[in-house]
Design brief:
Layout lengths: L1 E4 L9 E5 L7 H17 L3 E7 L2 H5 L11 H10 L4 E6 L2 H4 L3 H12 L2 E7 L12 H11 L2 E5 L3 E2 L2 E2 L2 H9 L3 H8 L4 E7 L4 H4 L5 E4 L9 E10 L2 E10 L11 E6 L10 E11 L7 H20 L1
Parallel strand pairs: 1-4, 2-3, 2-5, 3-4, 5-6
Antiparallel strand pairs: 7-8, 9-10, 9-14, 10-13, 11-12, 11-14, 12-13
């Protein structure tokens, strides 16, 4: 998949296009991408995605914007996996936000992305003050030479698959439900970096994962699967949080203890899949109490994988 920053680079040909934030790339997004790629094959066009960085809500209200489900890299990897050929990442700033719906259609969709067939979600709005809608796209498409279709939301057991629904499930510890909405277990990617070796001192060596998530959508202690080490799927227990019992940190840290594993994996890029929440993060009175709880967490995680 080719990735372009902004829309200065004109698309090499006419495109089949979809637009969205695609945070988490849940079942609704995946259905939209599947429709896009099928249409693109039928019409002989490259399947193309337009997405935004940062998330518009982070631009307009950074203090109250929802937690990100995926970093830009994670999102693009998932979009690539769906068979998309071109991805345009537009920097969402004041200038971009001020584009009128008509300017967005002409400058971005027609002039830059050369849209021939546009597929959008049923709740898609665009342009300054979110004034643009499906009706305007249809009217513009008729005069400017592109087709427009809207997809209905994906509903799972009476609930609309959405990024908000996934966040709610993760925040409340319902990881199996989040996985159903996503179509896969929720995961975080990151590189293994050097830590302060506290886990090793406690008898449970951990891989410290550098995260770009400043506000992850879940916190606590989890049974996890880890990919990225010699093609293996490893099992373990992870703590994602602020370490209130050992060197409290300002930004959350992801620490993973892998079962029956002691190789040097510093620098490895790992994918950590969260399968089951064991407990919330808590503060312990001393290291002995913390060590006892970690041993209990390891046992609980191992028992989870035995079921």
């Amino acid at each position: 998949m080719l990735v372009y920053r902004g829309y200065a680079q004109r698309a090499p040909s006419a495109t089949a296009l979809t637009i969205g934030n695609f945070d988490g790339v849940h079942l609704g997004h995946r259905a939209l991408l599947a429709r896009l790629t099928a249409t693109a094959i039928t019409e002989g066009l490259p399947p193309t995605v337009l997405t935004f960085e940062p998330h518009p809500r982070e631009f307009f209200a950074p203090g109250t914007a929802p937690a990100r489900l995926s970093t830009l890299r994670e999102k693009l990897e998932l979009i690539d996996d769906a068979g998309v050929a071109l991805a345009y990442v537009c920097h969402f700033n004041a200038r971009f936000a001020a584009l009128s719906p008509e300017e967005f259609i002409q400058k971005v969709l027609v002039d830059a992305l050369r849209v021939r067939h546009l597929i959008i979600g049923d709740d898609f709005r665009f342009g300054s003050k979110r004034a643009g809608d499906f009706a305007l796209l249809q009217k513009s498409g008729a005069s400017l030479g592109f087709q427009v279709e809207a997809m209905e939301s994906v509903v799972l057991e009476g609930e609309r698959a959405s990024s908000s629904a996934v966040r709610d499930a993760l925040r409340s510890g319902r990881l199996a439900h989040a996985a159903r909405l996503l179509g896969r277990p929720y995961s975080i990617d990151g590189r293994v970096v050097y830590g302060d070796q506290i886990g090793r001192q406690l008898g449970f060596a951990t891989a410290n994962i550098r995260m770009k998530h400043e506000r992850p959508p879940l916190l606590g202690v989890f049974a996890v699967e880890v990919r990225g080490v010699d093609g293996k799927v490893l099992q373990g227990v992870a703590n994602l949080g602020y370490r209130p019992s050992a060197n409290l940190v300002v930004r959350p840290i992801l620490e993973v203890h892998l079962f029956d594993f002691n190789a040097d994996i510093y620098g490895a890029h790992l994918n950590v899949r969260f399968l089951h929440k064991l407990r919330d993060e808590m503060k312990f009175p001393n290291f002995d109490a913390l060590k006892a709880q970690i041993a209990s967490d390891v046992e609980a995680a191992e028992n989870h994988f035995k079921v």
